[in-house]
Specification:
Layout (H helix, E strand, L loop, with lengths): L11 H15 L4 H8 L3 H8 L7 H11 L4 H9 L8 H8 L4 E6 L10 H14 L4 H17 L7 E7 H5 L5 H15 L4 E6 L13 E5 L5 E6 L4 E4 L2 H17 L3 H13 L3
Parallel strand pairs: 1-2, 2-3
Antiparallel strand pairs: 1-4, 4-5, 5-6
Helix pairs in contact: 1-5, 2-3, 4-5, 7-8, 10-12
């Protein structure tokens, strides 16, 4: 049987899955055996353990009953129902940490993989102030940003292609000093051997291919995945046939965007204007 490694630090969902797997294995049960005791299939148990499926209240209650964990899974399950990140994103991150190529389109905000710690903290603090996440969830977000950035420094390094809508570099976050440092981070990123950074200028207008953030992964076996999100949910698409049209549109967007040299010049000019 193939065993997928579960990293509990990736997300609360992964932590729940790792705890479930550990409790099951301590009793010497297979996924099918635990599933039979709980009233679920072994496939369902596998999906929860690997963070692909969130546990329902009934699932958590049955896990506590069968495993004798005294309400542990119910408490952890409740915290998952007000997540720090959108559904689907932790699963995307797990795949991003293994991808050969990462393509990003973002608008309105610098993407997490390029955020300075201060910029990331300011964005998280804003979400706390709005009441959309708790302080604890903000810390979880910041830890995830740091882990993603560390993972992209692996060897061999993945190729990373980033197209930023111009709004990303124009939107002030946390004051001029913070933004100067953040834009400086973008310039440093553009200078790396395995990266390409472009800006999609406002002038693209209706020719801009996407109206929502988009992430596209090329895995080592050359299969493709994509992740897109709205204000309420995220979705990881694993079917290559569905991802290829998005990849084509991404290439068209990159072709219409500023070159890397012109993009860096625009960022440098924006950085000079922040005083």
């Amino acid at each position: 049987m193939n065993r997928n490694e579960v990293d509990p630090d990736v997300s609360p969902g992964m932590a729940y899955g790792a705890r479930l797997r550990r409790s099951r294995e301590e009793r010497g049960w297979t996924q099918e055996e635990l599933g039979a005791r709980m009233g679920y299939s072994g496939t369902h148990i596998s999906a929860v353990e690997n963070g692909r499926r969130p546990p329902t209240p009934h699932f958590s209650a049955m896990a506590d009953k069968v495993l004798g964990t005294g309400g542990e899974f119910e408490r952890e399950g409740r915290s998952l129902r007000t997540p720090a990140v959108l559904e689907g994103f932790p699963e995307y991150v797990a795949q991003e940490m293994q991808a050969a190529e990462v393509r990003v389109f973002e608008l309105g905000i610098i993407p997490g993989v390029l955020q300075t710690p201060e910029y990331a903290a300011a964005i998280a603090a804003g979400a706390v102030d709005r009441g959309t996440i708790t302080e604890e969830q903000a810390q979880s977000r910041l830890s995830l940003v740091a882990r993603r950035q560390d993972a992209l420094n692996r060897s061999p390094a993945p190729s990373i292609f980033v197209v930023l809508d111009e709004s990303c570099i124009r939107r002030p976050v946390g004051g001029p000093s913070l933004m100067r440092a953040q834009l400086g981070r973008l310039i440093e990123f553009a200078g790396q051997a395995n990266t390409v950074l472009q800006v999609a200028p406002y002038e693209l207008g209706a020719r801009r291919a996407f109206d929502l953030p988009l992430y596209i992964l090329t895995m080592r076996d050359r299969s493709h995945m994509s992740y897109a999100e709205s204000a309420q949910r995220g979705h990881l698409e694993r079917e290559t046939a569905s991802v290829v049209p998005l990849l084509t549109a991404y290439h068209h967007l990159a072709a219409e965007s500023l070159s890397q040299a012109a993009s860096v010049a625009m960022i440098q000019e924006a950085r000079k204007g922040m005083s």
